[in-house]
Amino acid sequence: MYKILTLNHIRVGGLERLPRDRYEVASEIQHPDAVLLRSFDMHDWPIPDTVKAVGRAGAGVNNIPVAALSARGIPVFNTPGANANAVKELVLAGMLLAARNIGPAWDFSRGLRGTDAELTKQVEAGKKHFVGFELPKRTLGVIGLGAIGVKVANAAQSLGMRVIGYDPHITVDNAWRLSAQVEHVLSVDDVLSQADFVTFHVPLTDSTRHLINAARLQRARKNITILNFARASVVDEAAVCEAIKAGKVHAYVCDFPSSILKDHERVIALPHLGASTEEAEENCAIMVADQVRDYLENGTVLNSVNFPDLIMPRSEGYRLLVVNSNIPHMIERISAAIAKANINILDLLNKSRGQIACTLVDGASPIPESVVAEIAATEGVLAVRSL
Questions:
Q1: Distance between CA atoms of 240 and 267, rounded to whole angstroms?
Q2: Is the same domain home to 31 and 170?
Q3: What DSSP character marks residue 304?
Q4: CA distances from residue 97 to 148, 156, 248, 251, 376 in whole angstroms, order as listed
Q5: CA distance 240 to 224
Q6: Could you read off the pLDDT of 14-28 as tens digits, one per residue?
Q7: If pLDDT is split at 50, 70 and 90, which confidence band does 308 have?
Q8: CB 227 within 8 A of CB 99
Q9: Nearest to 202 by CA among 228, 223, 241
Q10: What is the DSSP letter of 139?
Q11: Which positions ≥6 away from 284 have C-beta within 8 Å?
């Protein structure tokens, strides 16, 4: 019986992927084999020694101590693409909100007082202050062409916008999904110099922190609208507010309210709604539950942020999973320990990613605990399990 600890509410559709005859799932449970969460901050949370996997029902993992978990041989799974449509729709809504001045116009209407006839006069006198512009033939710059960025780019292109994109690490799969009409540019500055709107779909790293800053805004196109549904710190809030005041930036639309943003003119700060749809939450829950289950039962790794993909069809044999530091001679040491027990190896897969390597071995006969213990005691081995 596997024990799964949930640190946040996980949609029932996901939890139903964990059969009750093999899984115990609870928000309070001792000695969990895996942890499922959404936004819970794990950095100061004591991680039990029994944990073998962590799964986040979402894309970003800034709330998870990935490096510390890697050092213990624990994979961290996320759900890239599961909330892509939800975020795409919110980006499109953000463009429309900014282009048509809907926020200030709504505030104006809510502040009207008087009879219907008086309101009509006030509306006719005031509407000239909220004249906007249309999206067709405007240029959208998309920085980050992953699952979300590709959907945003394709949708904007179908609305009649010119779309330019920048992503030095775009995958082959995402390149195939991207509309052929999306133009490729060579840098963030190239995007900013041409775009009427710019949207970010990148993880928060040292290289993407304050990707938009005062210096870059100086080189941006006048009256650019900035959309940030990635991470708050991708954009330097103070620099954007100053650029709005100076007339350089038309508007800033984001998913991350702060004290500097919430009352600022021409800023629309939403309460982190990017993935807040029933469909996205369900998709994320199902995806992360399936990934964690496949890892616990079969050693399969898919969509881990710190482990290599590890996919080997299950044979009729007995499976062993070894996680180790990516150092020489590990495969021969693992094989030697298995051979000493006179076990024939039916299949073997070894993959590495950065400092982590993983090996799946299918043996023709059961792998004794003595072999597991010998491999576990080998220098460089972080985790070993008989599956």
A1: 10
A2: no
A3: B
A4: 20, 15, 18, 10, 57
A5: 11
A6: 999 999 999 999 999
A7: very high
A8: no
A9: 228
A10: E
A11: 11, 14, 38, 57, 58, 79, 82, 83, 275
92 shares its domain with 186: yes
11 with 145, same domain? Answer: no
Q: What are φ and ψ of residue 183, in 5° steps?
A: -85, 140
Other C-beta atoms closer than 10 Å to the C-beta of 199 total: 29
Type of residue found at 239: A
Q: Name the residue range of residue 149's domain.
A: 84-269
Cα–Cα distance, 253 to 230 (Å, whole number): 11
Angle at 9 between CA 8 and CA 12, to 5 degrees: 145
Element (H, E) at 288: helix 278-298
Neighbours of 229 (CB within 10 A): 25
356: domain CATH number?
3.30.70.260
Tokens of 270: 């939403």
Where do the DSSP E strands lie in 132-201? 139-143, 162-166, 183-184, 197-200
d(CA 300, CA 321): 9
Predicted confidence (pLDDT) per residue in 31-81, tens digit: 999 999 999 999 999 999 999 999 999 988 999 999 999 999 999 999 999
Structure tokens at 167: 């992503």
Sheet holding 76-77, edge to edge: 23-26, 2-6, 34-37, 53-56, 76-77
- The count of structural domains within the chain is 3
Alpha-carbon gap, residue 16 to 5, rounded angstroms: 14
The answer to whether residues 225 and 137 belong to one domain is yes
Measured CA to CA, the distance from residue 295 to residue 213 in angstroms comes to 41
Cβ atoms of 141 and 164 closer than 8 Å = yes
- 236 residue type, one letter: D
d(CA 141, CA 211): 14
- AA letter at 270: L
